[in-house]
Design goal:
The chain is α/β, with parallel strands linked by helices and 247 residues long.
């Protein structure tokens, strides 16, 4: 089951995610202008729009598991990109793509072994994979706050997490097993100061937790977390660059 998102709030509060995405886009310098790119976890299409500029003679495909995100992405992109609602673990393409890109999304997929297999299958041999997502240690202090508040207000959330914050070493191993080569994985600390902390934390961090609670207890839990979080939010990004190995 995918996480239900407040896509409109996310769209206006996701400035940190757009900044992180610029790092990934910079690693795509030099790709062919007629390449086909797949954007995995496209959200509201802001990064997808930047990808379009990289391939003026090419094609951009985009997927996201949330219906509302996809609706906003389609409204933003029109007929310039093919956007559809799909869980990446169910991804099957009629033809492989040249590049797979994902930013600030894949830590929401908890089966990473299957994830990298799906993305390898989506790429042509020697195709490029460029990813950034939450990695080992990501929002550790925030997660401590979540668990502390949950013990008082939401016992069903104690010990539960919607994320996979993988290490660079585990990710490299999984990528090799999935058929990738020329792998580089590294963690990067990105202390983050959202302009509007409340909407950012609710939509970018607590969406799955809130959805798991009965409506009558959501505000108490969310208010408790927001009262205790402190800036900067201790984000750690897992960066991944790899090539699908030749058949």
């Amino acid at each position: 089951m995918s996480t239900p998102w407040d896509a409109r709030t996310y769209d206006v509060s996701s400035t940190p995610q757009q900044a992180w995405a610029k790092d990934v886009l910079s690693r795509l310098d030099g790709i062919a202008p007629d390449a086909t790119i797949l954007d995995v976890g496209c959200g509201t299409g802001r990064v997808t729009e930047s990808l379009l500029a990289l391939v003026p003679a090419g094609r951009v495909l985009a997927i996201d598991a949330d219906v509302e995100m996809v609706e906003l992405a389609r409204a933003r992109l029109g007929d310039r990109a093919d956007v559809w609602c799909l869980d990446v673990l169910e991804l099957e393409l009629a033809e492989p793509v040249d590049v797979v890109v994902s930013t600030a999304a894949l830590h929401w997929v908890t089966d990473h072994a299957r994830l990298w297999q799906r993305l390898a299958a989506a790429l042509r041999p020697a195709g490029i994979l460029e990813v950034q997502c939450g990695g080992a240690g990501n929002i550790a202090r925030v997660r401590e706050v979540i668990q502390s508040v949950a013990r008082d207000t939401a016992p069903e959330l104690v010990g539960w997490s919607p994320w996979e914050f993988a290490s660079a070493e585990d990710t490299e191993r999984r990528l090799r097993q999935a058929g990738f080569a020329s792998i580089r994985c590294w963690l990067q600390e990105r202390p983050t100061y959202p302009q509007d902390v409340g909407p950012f934390v609710r939509t970018s961090i607590l969406a799955a937790h809130i959805a798991r609670l009965p409506e009558g207890r959501r505000d108490q839990f969310t208010t408790g977390v927001l009262a205790r979080v402190r800036l900067p939010l201790d984000y750690v990004r897992l960066n991944i660059s790899a090539i699908r190995a030749p058949d």
